[in-house]
Amino acid sequence: MSYFLGIDLGTSAVKCVLVDSAGTVKASHSVEYPLLQPEPGWAEQHPEDWWRSTAAAIRALLAKASVSGGEVVGVGLSGQMHGSVFLDSDRKVVRPALLWCDQRTAAECEWIEQAVGITELGRLTGNRALTGFTAPKLIWLRNHEPHHYARTAHVLLPKDYVRLQLTGELGMDMADASGTLLLDVANRSWSSEVARALGLPLEWLPPLYESNDVVGQVLDGAAELTGLAPGTPVVAGGGDQACGAVGVGVVQQGIASVALGTSGVVFVHDDTYQADTEFRLHSFCHGVPGKWHRMGVMLAAGGSFQWWKNHFASDELQQVEANGGDVYSYLTALAETAPLGSEGLLFLPYLTGERTPHPDPKARGGFIGLNMRHTRAHLTRAVLEGITFGLRDSMELITASGVEIRELRVNGGGARSLFWRQMIADVFGYPVVTVNSTDGPAYGAALLAASGVLQRDVSVLCQEWIKVVHRVEPDKNQQRRYEQYYEVYRSLYPALRCTLHQLSDLAVSK
Ligand SMILES: Nc1ncnc2c1ncn2[C@@H]1O[C@H](COP(=O)(O)OP(=O)(O)O)[C@@H](O)[C@H]1O
Ligand SMILES: O=C(CO)[C@@H](O)[C@H](O)COP(=O)(O)O
């Protein structure tokens, strides 16, 4: 039997999945690694941890599935986007990577937008300078760690480091490269103009590939560590959002995906390059060769729910866990006992600043409208509703550009909850479906590997592999009531912006 291996290098863990040539998942396996937060707002990881964990996950997956390395005929990679891996001329790691959720580069983003100009930067790259993106991190390194900057010879994104260890080849796909702020997204090539304006060496950037291009073959040493066969072809793959969209079949116009991971993303496919006039949406290359996509990114979607679980719901939760229950399922059931709108309570999900629609590292979260009747159930529901309203903000920007949507495909950990899926259908006003692939980005990476190795069209493979398994329709009455809450929600950020900034400054003042 032949299998394709999809690897998704996430923020908390690497997930590997084996898929057969008909698109059926044989088995999956995850291995976690630590997230370092040496200062408030910083987020780093050791690239060596990624590689060690990936090799261990592949080995364990093959054993679990009783599949031999020789049966794996192609490998694809997906990964957390934007993270900067700095390598020296011997391809050794210079310092820990700065991740997508790291917020230290606010000053560098301002400098970039002044140096290039927001409109010119948008014309050249399709995007604004946002704290998570890669180029501001390179400038941060130049400003704050010149000794590390002087040693740097190559810059990669997280999953590209893993591909380098597997194959010995430097490379980056267009989809992930779009989040560096150094790609001319419209023309799918590095922007020498932006690199020159920022004084960044273009030679640090690796060769570019489409997501289903074969970049290299598994090396002997990597084969020994992973259990894969030497010479197995490895495709470029893509950023986790592009791979996740491929994994749920968002490879044509009319279907949007909503990813409920740590971040939250509303994603649409574009046949031609499109950019938001004010660059509030990210305009990126898609994992489908020669195609593009736009997305709005909320930094703490599932992340807000996870924060709520970790800090304000610990007592019963220990019991739930001890009885083998799922803590998130317990919390969504609790939320369901509170009425729609949480009896006049709104939650702002800007716990780690925000990207879309408010590119603001100093935005902060909050509960607004508390009264004496509110219980933990109301607050839990308000958290889920606030995240959903925040995602609707991205959808508003997408539909305002003239895109017509007929269906939402939900993926990520939050998609497990039927209650949350119904809430999304009611708040967005579109049918919400889930598909047979629950492994999202890893499944998309396996599909891209199959496309590259078998020389099959990505969209055709999506049609063959991906099937809708569940559908919820918006409830008109609930939709009308949510609309009233959403109108209040969207008025809060402009009204509170200065207050949130003051609080953000006070939090770090000594
Ligand atoms: N049963 C569930 N119901 C609702 N939300 C859930 C459930 N399980 C997980 N989640 C949410 O999904 C998030 C994790 O999603 P995942 O796609 O695994 O994220 P990542 O890839 O960023 O690590 C959690 O933080 C939580 O908010
Ligand atoms: O920054 C982005 C997209 O622009 C994030 O989507 C990261 O790529 C990681 O997301 P999770 O999968 O961990 O939520």
Automatic annotation (TrEMBL):
Residue numbers annotated as active site: 240 (proton acceptor)
Domain Carbohydrate kinase FGGY C-terminal, first and last residues per copy: 257-451
Keywords: ATP-binding, Carbohydrate metabolism, Kinase, Nucleotide-binding, Transferase, Xylose metabolism
Annotated site location: Important for activity: 8
Sample GO molecular function, one term: D-xylulokinase activity
Residue spans crossing the bilayer: none
Any matching Pfam family: FGGY_N
Reactions that this protein is recorded to catalyse: D-xylulose + ATP = D-xylulose 5-phosphate + ADP + H(+)
Domain of life: Bacteria
Domain Carbohydrate kinase FGGY N-terminal, first and last residues per copy: 3-247
Family annotation (InterPro entries): ATPase_NBD, Carb_kinase_FGGY, Carb_kinase_FGGY_CS, FGGY_C, FGGY_Carb_Kinase, FGGY_N, Xylulokinase
Binding site for substrate: 81-82
UniProt family annotation: Belongs to the FGGY kinase family.
Name this protein carries in UniProt: Xylulose kinase
Species whose genome carries this gene: Paenibacillus xerothermodurans
Gene encoding the protein: xylB
